[in-house]
Design brief:
heterodimer; B: mainly beta; five-stranded antiparallel beta sheet
Chain lengths: ~300, ~190
């Protein structure tokens, strides 16, 4: 057990500067900085995200999304937040259970406009003048694996995983195979800054669905997933339906039941302005800035729990 | 039956895959922001030495392999088997050539080795990190030479060949690091 920090002083200075740069970027654009609770009575329903629960049954937030959308519904205008988020059992080279997130929302923006703004932020913090590449989820799969991810069947995906020597027990979900192939075969090719957009509707999360695609995008840099953005779903009926689907899926996967955020649903019923929003991992951005390959080198005390 | 879930698999954890014992050498969680978490697990087959990679859904588990290591004394080789003995229980173990494939060239009678057992059967033998062995054959060196030049090959009594300084002669004892196969020093008798 070591009392010493996992990050160097140089890394801590780089973190302070990065956060200064981010604040200056948003301030120059008149975007309001906000704070929302880290401790909440309810949590997200995403079947693959596990919240940490306190003894009293409250949750450490897995993202500030719902609270920030309630601010938007109350007329806040554009807002950003730099905060801690918590996800149980996520520990690895790119994961910590407690991590720092930048999240911001732009009323009136769609996902294309938010990609523009995210690109501008990247160019500012890296002091570069080259725009990020943009490629659709479908084009990426077509180019590297010669399949249309929206139409392919699970049998073909299974064979493709075998062909690429990804040894795994049989998976029962098409999305699991898409994730697996994406991680093994596509993500390593995304070294230069790349926005991947228009995910399958089954992976819409909280993005608007338009035809057969979800208006969701992700940002990759140095082969690392850095941010996830949505043209945000505003329809309370559809939102309730997605919550119900998630709750059913959680049950099917044997995940802990969660309390649906009724305050968030009430805010949607009141009216959430059309907007786009994005969450970006600050620690991972720092990994790239510092050119280090482990997230713990960017966090002052990254292994407090793991080492105890 | 005992098993390990993905979050319990550490470096060195022994698991059964396709009927063979494997030792985990790397376990990396991979998780897209929205989607199933996986663990990408690299492991070495303890029978063949081959390294494989397997991707498991986080939370899935693998059966534990009953593998353990014990310290044993090397006794002799009868041409077919290598014989070892536990120094306290005096229990004897006979291994095939496959189990000593890496170790045999360093084995000297009475040396203490590490024996890996799988279901109580010998799987592999690890020689001591340092062994002292007699040189059975090497070219005569040049007088006045000191360590640091290129050296020369020397055959050891156990069968291994190592590079030694030119001043080291046939019949002398040398200390060798078996992990690198490098000469360390001469040993006075």
């Amino acid at each position: 057990m070591s009392w010493q920090p996992t990050a160097s002083l140089a890394a801590l200075k780089a973190r302070a500067k990065l956060i200064d740069d981010i604040r200056a970027f948003f301030k120059a654009r008149n975007i309001l900085e906000v704070e929302t609770p880290l401790l909440s009575a309810s949590t997200g329903t995403d079947p693959h995200i596990n919240a940490i629960q306190t003894k009293s049954g409250h949750y450490l937030q897995t993202s500030p999304e719902f609270a920030m959308k309630r601010l938007l519904a109350s007329g806040s205008g554009p807002i950003f937040q730099i905060c801690k988020a918590f996800r149980d059992e996520e520990i690895g080279q790119y994961h910590r259970q407690e991590f720092t997130m930048l999240e911001w929302y732009r009323p009136g923006f769609d996902h294309y406009q938010l990609m523009d703004e995210t690109d501008a932020l990247l160019q500012t913090v890296f002091d570069i003048h080259t725009a990020a590449r943009r490629v659709s989820y479908q084009a990426l799969f077509e180019h590297h694996l010669d399949i249309n991810p929206h139409q392919v069947d699970i049998k073909t995906l299974r064979e493709l995983a075998m062909q690429h020597h990804i040894f795994t027990d049989q998976l029962n979900s098409k999305d699991d195979y898409l994730d697996l192939l994406f991680y093994h075969c596509l993500q390593p090719t995304l070294q230069q800054a790349t926005f991947v957009y228009h995910y399958p509707t089954s992976q819409a999360a909280l993005a608007k669905i338009h035809g057969n695609i979800a208006e969701r995008f992700e940002l990759f840099l140095s082969g690392i997933e850095l941010a996830n953005g949505f043209h945000e779903l505003c329809d309370p009926v559809e939102q309730q339906q997605r919550f119900n689907n998630d709750v059913a899926k959680r049950q099917q996967l044997g995940k802990a039941a969660v309390t649906i955020d009724q305050r968030f649903l009430a805010a949607l019923e009141h009216s959430l302005p059309h907007c786009a929003g994005i969450a970006l991992g600050i620690d991972r951005l720092l990994m790239i800035t510092l050119n280090c390959d482990r997230i713990d080198a960017t966090i002052s005390f990254a292994n407090e729990i793991e080492d105890s | 039956m005992a098993s390990f879930a993905t979050n319990e698999m550490r470096n060195g954890t022994r698991v059964l895959v396709d009927g063979d014992p494997h030792s985990i050498i790397n376990n990396e969680m991979v998780k897209p922001g929205k989607g199933q978490a996986f663990n990408r697990i690299k492991m070495r087959n303890l029978k063949t030495g081959r390294v494989i990679e397997k991707t498991l859904k986080s939370g899935d588990s693998l059966e534990a392999a009953d593998v353990m290591e014990i310290e044993v004394q090397y006794l002799y080789n009868d041409g077919e088997h290598w014989h070892f003995m536990h120094p306290e229980t005096f229990e004897q173990y006979a291994t095939s050539a496959a189990a000593v494939v890496d170790a045999r060239q360093w084995l000297k009678e009475n040396d203490i080795c590490q024996l890996t057992l799988w279901n109580n059967e010998p799987l592999s033998v690890l020689p001591p990190n340092f062994v002292t062995l007699r040189i059975s054959e090497t070219d005569p060196g040049v007088k006045g030479d000191t360590a640091g030049t290129g050296g020369k090959p020397a055959k050891l009594e156990s069968g291994a060949t190592v590079r030694v300084p030119l001043f080291v002669q046939t019949g002398e004892l040398v200390k060798v690091d078996t992990r690198t196969g490098e000469y360390v020093s001469r040993v006075k008798e």
